[in-house]
Amino acid sequence: MNETTLYQHGTLALLVPGLLTGTLTMKELLAHGDTGIGTGEGLDGELIILDGKPYQVNSRGEVNVVPDDFTLPFANSHFAAYRPLMTVENATQEELHDQVLGLTHDANTFFSILVKGTFTDVKTRAVAKSGRPFKSLAETAKQQSVFDRQEVEGTLLGYYSPQLFNGAAVGGYHDHFLSADHGFGGHLLGFGTVTGEVQVQTFSTLEQHLPVDDAAYRDHDFSQDDIAGAINQAE
Q1: Does the keyword Lyase apply (predicted)?
Q2: How far does Cα 155 stand from its chain's mean position?
């Protein structure tokens, strides 16, 4: 069990033109980590994996545990070995992100943050599963639902990627959220403040796994796609 490796299946760039086929099973993803985030085939909801259990927030706001044969076009996972970093009190999302970078000096590497506490004005989203033929990320993301809570206890699970890797991942932070009662969550669009404990885990290795058995992926010409623009708009 390697705790210094971040495993990533697919790239965010492949979602941009609509390469949304599930090319990895949840069982295969969990072989590489007990913690992670991702999305299902056709952008089927938002996933957050905690303690080896994969929770999916669907477009109706329901939180489900998905089976081993659930497939994903894009996902991250790693084996959790977080270290305490700091306690925050009424910190905004920007303050949280800036303080983590200020204390870790990890702007040029990959790391994960895990924040457990009480969050205010939380806004999340999940996208409705689309069918074939898949449309672009921008078109598919229009079918998203947005959820909010004024105050909620829960866990923020995020990954930070250096700007150099924007396209392979989200340059900067990519955060998902799950409430403590497992009744609310999704891709984290933003929050007002958080009071709680912040932990981090730094990775020395990125293991990038590509869907080489998917003919549509192998044949696609990414030079025609506005990858950075589409990712910025979607995230």
Answers
A1: yes
A2: 13
Element (H, E) at 119: strand 110-127
Write the pLDDT tens digit of every residue in 85-99.
999 999 999 999 999
Q: How confident is the model at residue 229 (pLDDT cuts 50, 70, 90)?
A: confident
Is-contact 121 91, C-beta < 8 A?
no
Q: Is the peptide bond before 133 cis (omega within 30 degrees of 0)?
A: yes
- Phi, psi at 103, each rounded to 5°: -85, -30
DSSP lists the bridge partners of residue 88 as: 196
Q: Which residues of 194-226 are buried (b: 16+ CB within 10 A; e: fewer)?
A: bebebbbbbbeebeebebeebeebeebeeeebe
Dihedrals phi, psi of 233, to nearest 5 degrees: -70, -40
Strands 44-50 and 74-78: unpaired
What residue segments make up the domains of the chain, in order of their start? 5-234
Question: Is 5-234 a CATH 3.30.1330.80 domain?
Answer: yes
Residues 6+ apart with CB under 8 A from 20: 41, 42, 43, 73, 130, 134, 140
Q: In this predicted structure, what is the pLDDT of residue 159?
A: 98
The mean pLDDT value of the chain amounts to 95
